Amino acid sequence: QVQLVESGGGLVQPGGSLRLSCGVSGSVFSIYSMAWWRQAPGKQRELVAEVLNRGDTNYANSVKGRFTVSRNTVNNTLILQMNSLKPEDTAVYYCRLVAGGTGIPSWGQGTQVTVSS
Q: What pLDDT is recorded for position 74?
């Protein structure tokens, strides 16, 4: 069973930066994608950024140019570097892994990011 653990969330002022990490444990034969999602209070969970198995990346329009996603393929750690943070980036950020072959997703427990002065 795959387990994902996020870290790096916290409180930051507008314009600041945070770096989120997602560690993977358990047996993973292959990975189709890893991604960061977020959910703000009263809103649906939305995709923030993802890395596909060939290294392609996709970003939500709202974070393009400010966030950078990367994956360490040796230990399957997923990183989200968030710069120029805005109050509207406030949300719980979740890591998701989609297994290759089965397409079964696994989710982390989430980490809170709060952007406020």
A: 85
